[in-house]
Amino acid sequence: MSKRVFLIVLDSYGIGELPDAYKWNDRGSNTLGAIRDLPEFDCPNLKALGLFNIEGVGGGVSEPKGSFARMAEVSAGKDTTTGHWEMAGLISENPFPTYPDGFPEDVVIKLENAWGRGTLCNKPYSGTEVIKDFGKEHVETGKLIIYTSADSVLQIAAHEDVVPIDELYHYCEQAREILKGEHGVGRVIARPFEGEWPYRRTTRRHDFSLEPSRTMLDVLKEKGLDVISVGKIYDIFAGKGLTESNRTVSNADGMDKTMIIAERDFEGLCFINLVEFDMTYGHRNDAPGYARASTEFDMQLGLLLPLLRDDDILFITADHGCDPSTPSTDHSREYVPMIAYGKRIKEGVDLGTLRTFADLSASILEYFGEEPVCKESCSFLDKIFE
Q: In terms of CB atoms within 10 Å, which of 92, 140, 302, 315 comes out highest?
């Protein structure tokens, strides 16, 4: 039988503050804690697998069907790129640059010269509010709306009737070339919108990430295995180490595509990111919506589990937190869950706290007979595998 691993990242599904959360002003953050008692939250499959048996979570079942742990992040950050890179075996010792006061004038001038367009805003802003406040002027002048957040990002917003989507993507590619070295932000993000004021964002967002150095994905691809992405994994790794990419428009679409892939014959890794938890609910402090999205995921998880074959392993984890109950609308520095399930995975093994997300990559690589790419990581496969 072919070995297959499904790695699902519930984007921003943190489970409690890390010891160093105070450095990021994230004391008290607990994304799961903010939603688990809401009436919209009903996740029997996650509970049965052991989500609530994880250290520090509480309320677990007596006989969990999976093995589980909480994972700490050692990289210097709490963003999507840093979290995904670490779980793929690349620890970021230095944080990506952030711009709480906007981008420096010399950087903006370089961008405007490359684009042949002026810019608006240039400050941290909510993605929905920025198009309300600057959208009309953008439509009237053609100037691009640029903004950032607490994360290391440059976001470029434009109305699709003013700037066609391919042109906006080209502007992002130009910005990606400019923003390197000292100003090497983790991501440049295209944020198209449409309609009449108050405008609405479209689903054609696209992330342009820095290219990572060697990760688990490269090792698996070089071995001749399939490395299939679902959701924004392609963007996070700049396409590096992947053999196939599947874009999505929602969590549900991501799970639908994952189930289609699960019914196919392949050997290797299927790496899935479900971004709506973060983008639609966490950043908008919509706790009921976050809880409802959890319930919807859990229902689809129940449909995915029977599709797993004898040698398949399913891992469920997250990349950071985004507590929707705190005043902040930004990511939070939290532990993340790690659930492992499969017909050959032992039931009820509590691995406690793993020191780094990179332990996950070491375990996946060991399953495929390869050495870790991260010297600081340690495989836990021998503890959970029959």
A: 315
- pTM confidence score: 0.92
Q: Could you say which of 3.30.70.1250, 3.30.1020.10, 3.40.50.720, 3.40.50.2300 is the CATH number of the domain covering 105-209?
A: 3.30.70.1250
Q: Crossing angle, helix 80-87 and helix 358-367, to 10 degrees? A: 40
CA distance 331 to 324: 9
Domain 4-90+212-384 superfamily per CATH:
Alkaline Phosphatase, subunit A (3.40.720.10)
Strands 67-71 and 4-10: unpaired
